[in-house]
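User: I've been going back and forth on whether these two constructs are worth ordering. Before I decide, could you fold them both?

Assistant: Sure. I'll take them in the order you sent them. The first construct and its C-alpha cells:
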Amino acid sequence: MVRVMGVDPGLTRCGFGVVEGRPGRALTEIGHGVIRTSPAGEVGMRLMALAAGIGAAITLHRPDIVAVERVFSQHNVRTVMGTAQASGVVIFVAATAGLPVVLHTPSEVKAAVTGSGRADKAQVTTMVTRLLNLTAAPAPADAADALALAICQIWRGGAQAKLDRALTTSRGPS
C-alpha cells in the first residue's frame, strides 16, 4: 500500500487530497481540503500561508509521495504565474519533508480517472466520488482534482516502485 498526497496548486485555492491504495485494489480516501489565500494579500505572505497549510497536511496525513499537477501554459499569464509559484512552494515543502515529488499533466490525470484526457471537471469529480466510494462528491473542485492526482499516481505513476527507490535511497541498501 502507498499513501499519495495529490496537490492541485493554486495561489488563491490550493486543493489537496490523500489516497491510499495500490493498482488493482480498492482505494481509500484519507482526507482532502483546500488551502485558501486572499487575492488582496501580499504574494510573499500568501506563499508562506500556503507552505504552512501544505506542511500541516503532510504532518497530519503522512503521505509516502506527493503528486503535483504540472503547470501548463494558459492565456492568462497572471494566473499561470500564481499557479507556478504555488507549485514551487508545494514541491519545496514536500522535498523539505523528505518526500518524493512527481508531476502529472491535467490530461494524464483525466485519462487515468475517467478514461478520457478531455474529460471536464464534473466528469472527474463524478469518477473520483465513485472510485473512492464516497457518499458525497468532494468539494470544492480543487479538492476533487487533488484526489484525482493521487489516484493517477497510484494507478499510473509507478507509486510503489518510486516509493521503494526513495526508501532505499534514504535508508541505504537492505
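The second construct, handled the same way:
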Amino acid sequence: MAETEFVKRAVRESRLILTRDTLLGERWTVPSCLSLESDSTFDQLRQVIYRLNLRISDDKIFTICLKCNEPLEEAVREKVEGRVPPYVYRTKDRIFKCPRCGHLYWRGTHHDLVMGIISKVLELKGDREDHIS
C-alpha cells in the first residue's frame, strides 16, 4: 500500500500510526502518529505502553480478531467441536469466535508467553503494577 493511501486510511478510520519513519509526521498532518524511537522490540513496546498510558488487563488482552480487527465473542462449545483440535476442545473451557470471519481463538501457551513478555518489559522500568491489572 502506498504511503498516501496508508495515511488516508489511518485518518479515515481514526487509527494511530506507529512508525519508525521520523519524518512521516512532517510530511503529513496526522492527528495520531507515534514515532518509535528504538530498534528494540521491547523498547518499542515499552514506549507504546507508556506514551499511550495503556493498562494491560487479562480480561482485555486477546479480545480482537487478528484477521479483521473485530471484537471476539464467546463461541457456543457444541458448535466448534471438530473445528478446533480435539485436545483444545477437551481442555479449554472458553473458545472465542470472530463474528465477521468465523476464526476461532482460545487461550493457549501464547497467552502466557505474551503476558510474560509484557511483564518483563514493564519490570525493567519498575512500573509493572501501574500498567498490568
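Notes on the second construct follow. Residues 112 and 118 are 10 Å apart (CA to CA). The mean pLDDT is 88.
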